[in-house]
Amino acid sequence: MKLQRRVLLAAAGSAGLAALAPAVQAQAYPTKPITVIVPFAAGGPTDALARVLCQKMSEILGQQLVVENVGGAGGTIGVNKVAKAANDGYTLLFTHMGTLAVNIALYKSLPYDSQKDLEPIGMGGTNPMVLVTKKDLPAKDFGEFMAYVKANQKKVQYGMAGIGAASHLGGLMLNSMMKVEVLEIPYKGTGPALNDLVSGTFDYMVDQAVNVLPQISSGNVKALGVSTLKRLPQLPDVPTIDEAGLKGYEVTIWNGFFGPKGMAKENIAKVNDALARTLADATVSKRLTELAVDLPSKEEGTPEALRSLLKSSIDKWVPAVQAAGVKPE
Ligand code: MLT
User: Is pLDDT larger for residue 170 or for residue 11?
Assistant: First the structure.
């Protein structure tokens, strides 16, 4: 009888411990480095933003957030890797709306469903874009640029980071509104693309300000228009593309952290909190603001807000890209 009681108590004890175990594990997260997949090449805007954020978030979380660049196919290879990864919180994604919303209109089929296969964690910020050309392109303003591209459609080439990339969206909307068809040169990211623009391999690109501002200020590329409806404080002399002649042109790019579907809510909350504290850090926010990143408000910073933003971006961009007449690949 005694033996039976002891066995029962022991069983109850281990059951109790087992019930506690997930909570203890969740509290302890993260206990080892976290891989953050950036679905574009190193040295571009997504990579640069991820590295600024991950450095501070690593300090806050007490574990290294290690950026891994998995570029190619407009970011879809890297996103798919996260969509198929274990949802234990040790593989995360930092990407932008191109790979999650815009590319739905540009591929006949995608290997993931961005709304079903990923858990939104938090938004990193919104980025304006800039139309930049090689420095010896014979056009000193947007009007001359448009006339030059129209007159030279057979030889003009524009660079982008693959189908569905932010630079693709910026370029395709520009080309469609200018009513031109020019050759696209795809790269694994606009980091390597920008190097080639500086050396004059192709003619122009629409890329996020965060990537191109340093090359504009050193005079290695020319900035002929910004993609927002207001001029940027960093480029007060550069007109908006809208004011320079393409009424209604407006493209901004948000980015954020996501995990694989089913990532534990407590772990999502921990990463979200580290992100919020990173964005509130004076040094980080000053650095990002200098790079023209518009930081999210507290309300915009929640996982739920990112989920709604993803949905509203799909609702906005899929029909807009379809209306631009781009055929899915
Ligand atoms: C893009 O065009 O989607 C991005 O600029 C890619 C990148 O971060 O390199």
Answer: 170
**pLDDT of 11 higher than 70:** no
* φ, ψ of residue 126 in degrees (nearest 5): -120, 140
**DSSP per residue over 264-309, as a string?**
-HHHHHHHHHHHHHHHHSHHHHHHHHHTT-B---TGGGSHHHHHHH
H-run or E-run covering 132: strand 118-134
Per the structure block, which two tokens stand in for 74? 């407009």
Question: How many CA atoms lie less than 13 Å away from 61 in the CB half-sphere?
Answer: 31
Q: Residue 9's pLDDT band (boundaries 50, 70, 90)?
A: very low
pLDDT tens digits, 30-48 = 999 999 999 999 999 999 9
Q: Whose CA is nearest to atom 7 of ligand 1?
A: 189
Interval 297-317: pLDDT, tens: 999 999 999 999 999 999 999
Q: 189 C-alpha to center of ligand 1: Å?
A: 5
Secondary element (H or E) of residue 66: strand 65-69
Q: Cβ contacts of residue 319 below 8 Å, gap of 6+?
A: 105
Spatial distance between the Cα atoms of 290 and 114, rounded to a whole number of angstroms: 31
In ligand 1, the atom with minimum distance to the C-alpha of 75 is 3
Q: Ligand 1 pocket test: which of 158, 174, 196, 211 has the largest number of ligand atoms within 8 Å of its C-beta?
A: 211
CA of 131 to the centre of ligand 1 (A): 14
CA of 45 to the centre of ligand 1 (A): 6
User: Quick one: what percent of the chain has pLDDT higher than 90?
Assistant: 90
Tokens standing for residue 179: 């009513």
Predicted TM-score (pTM) of the model is 0.90
